[in-house]
Amino acid sequence: MSETAKRMLSGRVYDELRDAILRGDFAPGEALRPQELAGTHGVSLAVVREALVRLVGDGLADRLTNRGFAVPVQTDRRWQDLVEARCVVEPATLRLSIERGDLDWEARVRAAHHRLARTPAVERGAVTAEWSAAHHVFHRVLLEGCGNAVLLEAFDRMWLAGELARRWSAGRTPDRDYLGEHRALEEAALARDADRAAELLTRHLTLTAAGLPGSA
């Protein structure tokens, strides 16, 4: 098999495993056994291992010494650390975005919020893929006005790792007003109120951390 074909197969397996982990098909701490996954996906062991290594890099899997791979454990301190990192990076990036964003950025923020607000969030007791995608787009567009590719790449990596934690916390905060939180973020950003926008974003991220199992 050529290296190009191997990368394509590994990318497919990565996408399928990522989506399965985020859907909750694997329980926290459950082993991700390369041999079994190779059989399930009809690919070689090398292809599966490459996909698993990518998942480890994205924070969606752990590589355990002498024990292979596993889904991260819910109570791991890393999730609190991740939110702390996001509370440092994202509000600062949002400030830059509000300072530098042009009229096109304002229009994209408004459009992204409109789509998010009108996309059904839950279906059969689970967060919909459509809402998750719209949620990601809204938060990313808020920051895109900064014009800094390094900061946006950092956001993308932390978002994917944080998506697992967010889905774990979703059912623990049934009274949380997600619509109101996002609407307030949009309004503050478009009003160019950087202090309020940064404060709202920090609170938004902190509430997600508070809903995780094992948190105070």
Question: How are the elements arranged and paired?
Answer:
Layout: H1 3-23, E1 31-32, H2 34-41, H3 45-57, E2 62-64, E3 68-70, H4 78-100, H5 103-117, E4 122-123, E5 126-127, H6 129-144, H7 149-170, H8 178-190, H9 194-210
Helix pairs in contact: 1-3, 2-3, 4-7, 4-9, 5-6, 5-8, 6-7, 8-9
In short:
It comes from Actinophytocola xanthii. The chain has 216 residues and is mostly helical.
What does this protein structure show overall?
The protein is mainly alpha-helical and 216 residues long. It has two domains: 3-70, Arc Repressor Mutant, subunit A (Orthogonal Bundle), CATH 1.10.10; 78-210, Four Helix Bundle (Hemerythrin (Met), subunit A) (Up-down Bundle), CATH 1.20.120.530. 69% of the residues lie in helices and 6% in strands. Strands 1-3-2 form a three-stranded antiparallel sheet. It starts with a helix and ends in a 6-residue tail after the last helix. The mean pLDDT is 88. Pfam families: FCD (PF07729), GntR (PF00392).
Going across the major beta sheet, what is the strand order? 1-3-2
What does the main sheet amount to? 3 strands, antiparallel
Radius of gyration (Å): 19 Å
CATH homologous superfamily placement of the largest domain? GntR ligand-binding domain-like
Tertiary shape = elongated
